[in-house]
Design brief:
This protein has 471 residues and is an all-beta fold. The protein has helices at residues 54-58, 130-133, 394-397; strands at residues 28-34, 45-46, 61-63, 68-71, 74-84, 87-91, 93-95, 105-112, 119-127, 140-145, 152-160, 166-174, 181-187, 191-196, 199-205, 220-228, 244-256, 263-267, 273-275, 278-281, 287-292, 297-304, 306-318, 323-329, 335-341, 346-359, 362-372, 375-384, 389-390, 404-406, 413-417, 423-429, 434-440, 445-447, 454-460, 465-470.
């Protein structure tokens, strides 16, 4: 974000790759994220004021926390034309300094930003040691910068080179910045690579600290801001553009994993069985699932290669508040986790939400149960995260005390696995009405042919409550 006039640009150390290469095959584990679903993480610290010399760039705004809000699952940084603190504009600048920082990894954000004369939004990083060594000795990585009405984004590093002189190296690529795009770097001990929508456009070598790039082998923290005017965009500002907004769907940080990568995306309409939902045309292509109300459920078939932690991402849209997704194994045992669905501003105004859950390896049926409805679902994506371990079968990973019903869903019989002693059972529908009861023996089965299709709860004398689905 910081710029200096009469820049010294060093070329001899760099290997530039052709535009059009896709993101690397490195397996990344999600280690930190802010999805901006209802609030801003406490890991962010807000800058206030005008900084030293307009934050080192003669910027024209006064930064205030009040200019950062959350709306419809997005961080919104609003720049306003208003007199405050001796300046004619206000905006926001936020950072994870002192709270979160990382050495190497994939750092990405999905961003939509304005394009007008005087604009300067940025997604960037600074070295943790800036307070002790200053800039540029701490190093700076600009993941995304855009100025004025350019149809491009810039990726840059700034540092103090082996001659103790300021140096920078930059690349750019064409992009319509007023639409959402994923801006990212992939950073390791050898290089920093810049991507837009997973397409590589710039690379810088830092192997062995070549040409003094030792700064980039330390921890860095993340910043987001939208400046108005300054040394790079200049000091002519289109005052008709205000108020103007920079929208950030999410910020995510990944680090390298030793486990082979795995990710599967399941289209919501490709369910195995469901209750209460319908499909409709989706503005993102194909179909989405809608008319989701409390008590509805949807089941999909998946095959997971690892037992451990997975990140489950949902593509959702809603014009209501209060929706809830309960992600579980079909039948409701276990319940993996729950997540709230934000008001996205419309039934076809899509955003992504995600949470980490623990799941076992193997071919299985997963489900969404709906404690509170009022949202649409386009797809869900399951990606292995930290802690996943390879397992030869689901059975090898089950606790000896686990009680499972299978097959689930079932048309006729439910078999019971894990029951150690004879037990009474009662089956209830979702209204709480008892519809069946009896006695179960270890490795026994329950005849459910007489039940109507739908979801039910089986309560055992052991205290276990198991959800199942009758086809």
């Amino acid at each position: 974000m910081k710029t200096v006039t009469n820049l010294k640009i060093l070329f001899v150390m760099w290997v530039c790759l052709a535009i059009g290469h896709t993101a690397s095959s490195q397996n990344w584990q999600l280690v930190w994220q802010d999805e901006f679903n209802g609030s801003i993480s406490s890991d962010w610290v807000f800058e206030t004021g005008t900084g030293s010399g307009g934050w080192g760039n003669n910027e024209l705004q006064y930064y205030r926390q009040q200019n950062a809000t959350v709306e419809n699952g997005n961080l919104v940084i609003t720049a306003r034309r208003e007199s405050f603190g001796g300046m004619n504009y206000t905006s926001a600048r936020m950072k994870t300094q002192g709270r979160r920082s990382w050495k190497y990894g994939r750092i990405e954000a999905r961003i939509q930003m304005p394009s007008f004369t005087g604009s300067w939004p940025a997604f960037w990083m600074l070295g943790d040691n800036i307070s002790s060594v200053g800039w540029p000795s701490c190093g700076e990585i600009d993941i995304m910068e855009h100025v004025n009405t350019e149809g491009q984004t810039h990726g840059t590093i700034h540092w103090q080179d082996h001659n103790n002189s300021y140096a920078s190296y930059s690349g750019s690529t064409g992009v319509n910045v007023t639409g959402y795009h994923i801006y990212a770097i992939e950073w390791d001990a050898n290089a920093i690579r810049w991507y837009v929508d997973n397409t590589l456009f710039h690379e810088a070598s830092i192997a062995g600290g070549v040409n003094g790039t030792h700064e980039f082998h330390n921890n860095f923290f993340v910043l987001l801001n939208m400046a108005v005017g300054g040394n790079w965009p200049g000091f002519t500002v289109d005052n008709n553009a205000f108020p103007t907004r920079m929208l950030v769907d999410y910020v995510r940080v990944y680090q390298a994993s030793s486990s082979p990568s795995f990710s599967t995306q399941v289209e919501a309409e490709n369910y195995a069985v469901m209750n209460g939902i319908q499909t409709e045309s989706c503005v993102e292509g194909g179909l989405n699932v809608g008319w989701i109300d409390a008590g509805d459920w949807i089941v999909w078939d998946v095959n997971l290669p690892y037992s451990g932690t997975y990140n489950v991402e949902y593509r959702v849209a809603s014009q209501n508040n209060g929706g809830v997704i309960q992600f579980e194994q079909a039948g409701g045992n276990p319940i993996f986790g729950s997540i709230g669905v934000p008001n996205t501003g419309g039934w076809q105004n899509w955003t992504s939400i995600s949470h980490n859950v623990n799941m076992n390896a193997g071919q299985q049926q997963v489900a969404i149960y709906v404690p509170a409805g009022g949202y649409n679902l386009n797809w869900l994506k399951i990606t292995n995260a930290s802690g996943a371990r390879l397992s030869s079968s689901l059975a090898n990973e089950l606790s000896v005390d686990a009680i499972l019903l299978f097959p689930n869903p079932s048309e006729s019989q439910l078999k019971v696995e894990g029951l150690k002693t004879e037990s009474a059972y009662s089956i209830f529908d979702l209204s709480g009405k008892q519809v069946l009861k009896g006695i179960l023996k270890p490795k026994g089965a329950v005849d459910i042919q007489q039940l109507k299709a739908g979801a039910y709860i089986m309560e055992l004398g052991t205290g276990s409550k198991l959800k199942f689905i009758k086809k």
